[in-house]
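This part of the workshop introduces the protein records we will be handling. Backbone structure tokens are a discrete shorthand for how the chain folds in space. Once this layout is familiar, the rest of the handout is easier to follow. The record below serves as our worked example for the rest of this section.
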Amino acid sequence: MLEKVEEFNMDKVIQEFELLTRDAERVKRETLKRILEDNASAEYLQSLGLNGRTDPESFKACVPMVTHKELEPYIYRIIDGDSSPTLTGKPITTMSLRCS
């Protein structure tokens, strides 16, 4: 039997979205903290002097915006089989070299 699909209600969608994003700043900070905790052992982050700090202010102060070109030495090490925590705390086991 076919289920009856609830009629689309834009007000309900907006209300749910607002509820989910009400505290986006806290969610963003917690997400960054978790990412930095998971990757604290990464050579790249250690070389920048982050030293295990997980707050946004330290991240902004220590981690500069970079291009792919600047990360290439790390990427090529991973491609060549280096399984040490280079860019991430856990080994990267697959990498796509697809160009778009």
